[in-house]
Amino acid sequence: MSVNLNALKQYQSVDLRATVETASPHKLISMLLDGVLGSLAKAKGAIERESIEERTQHLNKASEIVVGLKGSLDLEQGGEVAANLNGLYDYMLRSIMTANSQNDAEKVQEIMDLMLEIKQGWAEMPNDIQMGE
């Protein structure tokens, strides 16, 4: 039996769009965190396979997502936490550029480790804060 890959991709796109449209702001940030981690993991694999084009593609995608996360910060109301995240995201963006220019899998892993800490903290946020109460 042959699977129609175009139909599968369309279904996945519709499913993702529906998820995004109905997701809470907390869930959207979680999705972005998952997206950047996925892109970084793919970039690390591309470095190990010595695929320059693929590495660059995935690191560019990771950068775009980090810029989106940075843009979602409310620096006025977020206080010290938002300011710290802003600085950390700046560091990650610089590190992604370094990893790309130096073909450095260890630097990619460092960024992934930092992002995993953010993801864990985000996931452990109390439900009333997640819901914006």
CATH class label of the domain at 31-123 = Mainly Alpha
Number of helices: 6
Which architecture of the domain at 31-123 does the CATH hierarchy give at level 2?
A: Up-down Bundle
Question: What is the beta-strand fraction?
Answer: under 5%
Q: Which spans have pLDDT < 50 for at least 5 consecutive residues? A: none
Order of helices and strands: HHHHHH
Q: How many distinct beta strands?
A: 0
Distance between the termini: 50 Å
Helix/strand class: mainly alpha
Q: Mean of the pLDDT scores?
A: 86
Largest sheet: none
Shape: globular
- Radius of gyration of CA atoms, rounded to a whole number: 17 Å
Helical content class: over 70%
Report on this model:
With 133 residues, the protein is mostly helical. The chain has a domain at 31-123: Four Helix Bundle (Hemerythrin (Met), subunit A), CATH 1.20.120. Helix content is 82%, strand content 0%. The chain contains six helices and no strands. The chain has helices at residues 5-22, 25-48, 52-71, 79-102, 105-123, 127-130. Helix 2 (25-48) packs antiparallel against helix 3, helix 2 runs antiparallel to helix 5 (105-123) and helix 3 (52-71) packs antiparallel against helix 4. The longest helix is centred in the first third of the chain and has 24 residues, at 25-48. The radius of gyration is 17 Å and the shape is globular. The model has no long low-confidence stretch (mean pLDDT 86).
